[in-house]
Q: What sequence folds into this?
């Protein structure tokens, strides 16, 4: 079973930056999409950013121009650079890897103070 562990979350002031990383316990075969999701209190989990194996990147409208998703290597398959953070970005952020199976991390808290 593959385990994903996110890191890089924390408390930051509005306008600041954070970089989230996702570590995998072993290689994942047949990867076709790498994604970051987030879930704010009382809200549904939403897709923030996704990169597919053909290199295409998709972002939620609310983060376009501020967040950048990057693919990595087998041990650190995906990261998320978050700039110009806003209070509405406060949420638990989850990495997701879809391949032969689909894998989720346990989440990392991002809190943006205004």
A:
């Amino acid at each position: 079973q593959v385990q994903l562990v996110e890191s890089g979350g924390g408390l930051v002031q509005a306008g600041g930056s954070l970089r989230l990383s996702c570590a995998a316990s072993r290689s994942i075969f047949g990867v076709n999409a790498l994604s970051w999701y987030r879930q704010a209190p009382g809200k549904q989990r939403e897709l923030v950013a996704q990169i597919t194996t053909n290199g295409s990147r998709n972002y939620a409208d609310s983060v376009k121009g501020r967040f950048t998703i990057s693919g990595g290597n087998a041990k650190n398959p995906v990261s998320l650079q978050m700039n110009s953070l806003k209070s509405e970005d406060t949420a638990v952020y989850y990495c997701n890897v879809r391949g032969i199976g689909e894998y989720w991390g346990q989440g990392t808290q991002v809190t943006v103070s205004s």
